[in-house]
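JOB MANIFEST
job_type = single_chain_structure
chain_count = 1
residues = 188
[input]
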Amino acid sequence: MSHELQWSRRRVLAATLAAAVAAPSLLRSHAAQAAEMIGPQRWIELFNTHTGETVSVAYHDGRRLVASAVAQLERVLRDHRANEEHPIDPDLYDQLSAVALESGRDARFEVISGYRSPHSNARLAAAGSGVAKRSLHMEGRAIDVRLKGASCTSVRDVALAMARGGVGFYRKSNFVHLDTGRVRSWQG
């Protein structure tokens, strides 16, 4: 055998052996990449302080929203004054989950206000309750909450740092307003 032929066979054998050893790790990395693209399941618990209702659901399965869970969330977030439901912006659920994660807490929230019908919002605004006449609550894009186990001050600070929408801090009433509108902040 010539020296060149032996060298080629050694290279082929070495390359084959290297590929065989690397194959399982390549497969794992593809699986890991697929898992990253899918993402983790997202879970949230909401307790409505006005109705006493609680819902605890995985609202996102890692690929898409879970319709039955979203329906349960919308039921708890309904305008309790008018008993009227409305679609809620899914980004609001993600924002709540992110605030809880950044706060080092489970995503367990007390809800002071979710969806508000235009009629309920107009009544509250007329009563001088500090309610905006064109509130994002009427679009299902705002929520007033407390995060269980965290101070409202810390929730406000985390939400402000995330800069994912509006953040209102109501120290006297002890809640934080979060919305999916433009980034802004205020105190009530």
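[summary]
Confidence is low (pLDDT under 50) at residues 25-37.
Residues 1-38 form one domain.
exit_status = 0
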